[in-house]
């Protein structure tokens, strides 16, 4: 790199490589000077102390970092935080609504023993929340009947849930229980 | 109703469940502080050689980079028990991916950029990373993993084989396999003077503390290791790993708390893996399928860093009543990453080969494969002659056959066709030994009526906290919610590793003893408890781990149904059913999850998990989760797990055998046998990927997609 960097122990990335970014996270606005290299996952974990979203691969391969960005599920490790200025982020910590102790999915995961080590769990839960919204909005999946009417809500059977949740890996093998839990909260 | 009836065995909910579903459970990389720094390792890019120069100038010039550690400037460490922990101590590169430098920086981004800017120059040497059955450097080691003798022989297996009515002589290949827990290995270290505190993703804090004490020349009581939550391990966190050493080193060099969370793609080279195994099975039998001779020979590799021998021929010593037997391990030290424990080391690949061969024998002699196994049920443990403490394999096979609907099976291979799909079913047995380690525990009665139990267990997702509370409540005759449990802290005292399916037996024995003792103290007491309560302690050294006169093993039976697509070559497992006999099941809820989890990992071993050692670069080609395919939701249709309750007084106070590993053991063979039943083709190399299956179908004269048309 170049000479403008001092080597003081507390040196941070210099201003030209950072930008002011505002995100609403779990309903609260946060304005930060963000390193252009910082992804949403690291912003949540390192800057905001929200470690619910997990780093499993850092490459969009495992889904452990799944959060909701403007209501849609995304891999937080693949999103540069500065590109999200003005976005609304919901993490597992903010999933339960006001006055709710637990989101119905969180309760269903507890009831069904839908996890073991718990590391993929926040991502699974956020992903499931996204699945429910996508199906309600009529988004088809690979296994949706091609003859299903376009734009109508898609019924979520177990095969649909499995297909749509396949971006969220679980090495403990809690998959069948996760599908049970998602089924429990289908309206 | 006694507390025992209500507590032990009950499907109690996981105690840490709420933290896990709300994202507040903290894992090793998540202990932040204002001055915490991050580290990023630099892996070697040659398969063998030495580092002759490290140019760190460009890295150090980057903003935020605090230090670059190499073998030239890193602190000198004491000798560890495990040589894989001697990081940055010399210029030697024993395999590609071995860490040759570490960058410490203010932020993750700066650390990553710094690692990318370090320039390492190597003197390379010719490397040999390719295992073959006839590798010239293969030797017979003294012992295999677990301390088992490398070779055993009973009678004259060659002579008996030669004169057997039915003879089978076949080879099987299991590729390298990777544990890949969802949480990459991580450590956060902080020094306060000469006191070291580490948050580690390890499966056992006592072992980490002991190694750090050796490496940093400290008495153990100056080191605290905690593993409150661990995101899976499957053996790869069963021994201390380099990240915890590097984090402690970096923290000492920078005077800052340091977190090192390994990038996913670096894991295969430094956290151990299941070594590839080449199997040769020779089964001799009479015309009714009764074994006359059993030979299981295994060839595997280890690294040049240390000898680790996957004990894959060991389960043959336990399984069947063969009057003559030979089991043998050979190993070649290559320039490869050091293999280590992965879920059911030995049993998992060994039983794939043995149970595939048993299926071949069943076809050969025309005996139903369930019946063939029952016919070969031994009276005592075949190799040792010891009586079994309990052995319910036959019950598992019969119960599984009934639940699966096995009697409806048409035994003829390729007898199930549905359009382009070939349908088949298969069975395999499973076994896993009862292991147990010593440890300490304490139980404290508090004035309010609650109890506090402390034991240095680790909950890697098994539900250890929960089942230990059940064991304590049972021994105390107390309600479950009156028992608090503290675990995963080396300051509690010695606790054995969450591995070898031994955790519950080991920690539970100590908890049971402490609680029983406390119960006795309370029974004879009329005066109120002092403010600090009343405490009882237990140390099970020499007791829990005493040699048993019994052969103690869990057993199981796996059944699988597959649909083989003749167009794509894809194998789908449409049904997977396991029945297990593992003593008393202490928590029905978490036990079922563990059995199914093991079976799911076995499904991956059967169908998708494949790792290739690149012969030119000496690297695993499939080093991340995009290329190394662990099962996903869509792969796992409806696995079912059941168990046969065993009353076994020769185990531990709870009467339990371990359950963490047996679920994986027979799965791959059951699936492979089902694929043979579906296709009539015997595939002897895992995994059963579409390329292999389609090639097999074509070679056997079935034009792709044309069957059933």
TrEMBL record, chain A:
Q: Which UniProt keywords apply?
A: 2Fe-2S, Iron, Iron-sulfur, Metal-binding, Oxidoreductase
Write out the ranges of the annotated region (Disordered).
Answer: 1-22
Which terms does the record give in the GO molecular function aspect?
Answer: 2 iron, 2 sulfur cluster binding; metal ion binding; oxidoreductase activity, acting on the aldehyde or oxo group of donors
Highest taxon of the lineage: Bacteria
Instruction: Copy the pathway line from the protein's UniProt record.
Output: Alkaloid degradation; nicotine degradation
Q: Does the keyword Cell inner membrane apply?
A: no
Secretion signal, residue range per the UniProt entry:
none
Q: Where is the composition biased (Basic and acidic residues)?
A: 1-18
Q: Which PANTHER family match?
A: OXIDOREDUCTASE WITH IRON-SULFUR SUBUNIT, OXIDOREDUCTASE, IRON-SULPHUR BINDING SUBUNIT-RELATED-RELATED
Specify the protein name.
Oxidoreductase
UniProtKB/TrEMBL annotation, chain B:
Q: Could you tell me the keywords of this UniProt record? A: Molybdenum, Oxidoreductase
One Pfam family for this entry, by name?
A: Ald_Xan_dh_C
Which superkingdom is the protein from? Bacteria
For this protein, the record's InterPro entries field holds:
Ald_Oxase/Xan_DH_a/b, Ald_Oxase/Xan_DH_a/b_sf, Ald_Oxase/xanthine_DH-like, AldOxase/xan_DH_MoCoBD1, AldOxase/xan_DH_MoCoBD2, AldOxase/xan_DH_Mopterin-bd_sf
Supply the SMART domains for this chain. Ald_Xan_dh_C (SM01008)
Q: Name one GO molecular function term.
A: iron ion binding
The UniProt entry, under SUPFAM superfamilies, shows: CO dehydrogenase molybdoprotein N-domain-like (SSF54665), Molybdenum cofactor-binding domain (SSF56003)
PANTHER family found in the cross-reference section: ALDEHYDE OXIDASE 1-RELATED, XANTHINE DEHYDROGENASE
**Protein name per the record:** Xanthine dehydrogenase
């Amino acid at each position: 790199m170049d000479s403008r960097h001092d080597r003081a122990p507390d040196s941070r990335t210099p201003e030209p490589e950072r930008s002011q970014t505002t995100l609403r996270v779990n309903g609260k606005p946060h304005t930060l000077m963000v390193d252009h290299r910082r992804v949403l996952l690291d912003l949540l974990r390192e800057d905001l102390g929200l470690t619910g979203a997990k780093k499993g691969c850092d490459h969009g391969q495992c889904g452990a970092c799944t959060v909701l960005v403007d209501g849609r599920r995304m891999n937080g490790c693949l999103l540069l935080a500065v590109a999200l200025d003005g976005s609304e982020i919901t993490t597992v910590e903010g999933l339960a609504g006001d006055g709710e102790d637990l989101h119905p999915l969180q309760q269903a995961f507890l009831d069904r023993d839908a996890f073991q080590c718990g590391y993929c769990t926040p991502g699974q839960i956020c992903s499931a929340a996204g699945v429910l919204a996508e199906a309600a909005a009529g988004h088809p999946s690979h296994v949706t009947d091609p003859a299903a009417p376009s734009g109508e809500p898609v019924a979520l059977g177990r095969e649909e849930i499995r297909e749509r949740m396949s971006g969220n890996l679980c090495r403990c093998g809690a998959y069948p229980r996760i599908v049970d839990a998602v089924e429990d909260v289908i309206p | 109703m006694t507390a025992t009836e209500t507590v032990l065995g009950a499907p109690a909910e996981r105690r840490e469940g709420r933290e896990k579903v709300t994202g507040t459970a903290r894992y090793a990389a998540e202990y932040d502080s204002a001055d915490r720094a991050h580290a990023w390792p630099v892996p070697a890019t040659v398969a063998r050689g030495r580092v002759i120069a490290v140019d760190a100038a460009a890295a150090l010039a980057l903003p935020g980079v605090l230090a670059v550690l190499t073998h030239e400037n890193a602190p000198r460490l004491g000798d560890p028990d495990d040589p894989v922990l001697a990081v940055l101590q010399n210029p030697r590169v024993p395999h590609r991916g071995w860490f040759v430098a570490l960058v410490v920086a203010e932020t993750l981004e700066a650390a990553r950029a710094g690692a990318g800017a370090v320039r390492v120059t190597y003197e390379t040497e010719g490397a040999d990373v390719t295992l073959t059955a006839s590798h010239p450097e293969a030797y017979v080691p003294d012992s295999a993993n677990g301390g088992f003798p490398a070779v055993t022989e009973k009678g004259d297996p060659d002579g008996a084989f030669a004169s057997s009515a039915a003879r089978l002589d076949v080879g099987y290949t299991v590729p390298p396999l990777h544990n890949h827990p969802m949480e990459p290995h991580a450590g956060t270290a902080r020094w306060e003077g000469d006191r070291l505190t580490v948050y580690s993703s390890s499966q056992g804090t006592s072992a980490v503390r002991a190694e750090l004490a050796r490496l940093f020349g400290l008495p153990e009581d100056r080191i605290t290791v905690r593993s409150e939550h661990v995101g899976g391990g499957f053996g790869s966190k069963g021994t201390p790993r380099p990240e915890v050493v590097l984090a402690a080193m970096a923290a000492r060099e920078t005077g800052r708390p340091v977190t090192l969370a390994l990038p996913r793609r670096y894991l295969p080279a430094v956290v151990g893996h299941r070594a590839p195994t080449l199997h040769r099975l020779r089964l001799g039998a009479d015309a009714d399928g009764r074994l006359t001779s059993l030979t299981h020979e295994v060839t595997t590799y280890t690294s040049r860093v240390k000898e680790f021998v996957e004990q894959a021929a060991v389960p043959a010593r336990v399984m069947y009543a063969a009057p003559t037997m030979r089991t043998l391990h050979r190993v070649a030290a290559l320039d490869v990453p050091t293999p280590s424990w992965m879920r059911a080391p030995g049993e998992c690949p060994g039983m794939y080969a043995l149970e595939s061969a048993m299926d071949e024998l069943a076809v050969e002699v025309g005996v139903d494969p369930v019946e063939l196994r029952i016919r070969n049920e031994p009276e005592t443990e075949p190799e040792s002659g010891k009586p079994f403490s309990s052995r319910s394999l036959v019950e598992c096979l019969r119960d599984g056959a009934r639940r699966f609907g096995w009697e409806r099976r048409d035994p003829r291979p390729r007898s199930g066709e549905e359009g382009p799909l070939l349908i088949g079913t298969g069975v395999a047995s499973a076994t896993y030994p009862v292991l147990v380690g010593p440890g300490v525990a304490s139980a404290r009665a508090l004035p309010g009526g609650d109890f506090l139990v402390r034991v240095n267990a680790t909950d890697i997702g098994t539900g250890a906290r929960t089942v230990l509370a059940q064991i304590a409540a049972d021994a105390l005759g107390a309600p479950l919610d009156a028992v608090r449990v503290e675990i995963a802290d080396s300051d509690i005292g010695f606790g054995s590793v969450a591995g070898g399916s031994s955790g519950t037996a080991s920690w539970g024995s100590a908890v049971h003893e402490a609680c029983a003792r406390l119960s006795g103290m309370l029974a004879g007491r009329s005066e109120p408890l002092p403010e600090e309560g009343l405490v009882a302690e237990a140390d099970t050294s020499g007791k829990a781990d005493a040699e048993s006169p019994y052969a103690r093993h869990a057993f199981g039976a796996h059944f699988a149904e597959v649909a083989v697509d003749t167009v794509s070559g894809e194998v789908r497992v449409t049904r997977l059913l396991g029945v297990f006999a593992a003593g008393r099941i202490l928590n029905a809820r978490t036990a079922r999850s563990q059995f199914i989890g093991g079976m799911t990992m076995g499904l991956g071993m059967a169908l998708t998990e494949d790792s290739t050692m690149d012969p030119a670069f000496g690297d695993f080609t499939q080093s991340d989760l995009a290329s190394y395919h662990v099962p996903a939701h869509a792969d796992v249709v409806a696995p079912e797990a059941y168990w046969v309750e065993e009353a076994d007084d020769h185990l531990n106070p709870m009467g339990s055998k371990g359950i963490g590993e047996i679920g994986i053991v027979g799965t791959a063979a059951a699936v492979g046998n089902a694929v043979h039943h579906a296709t009539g083709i015997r595939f002897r190399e895992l995994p059963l990927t579409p390329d292999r299956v389609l090639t097999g179908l074509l070679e056997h004269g079935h034009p792709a997609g044309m069957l059933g048309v």
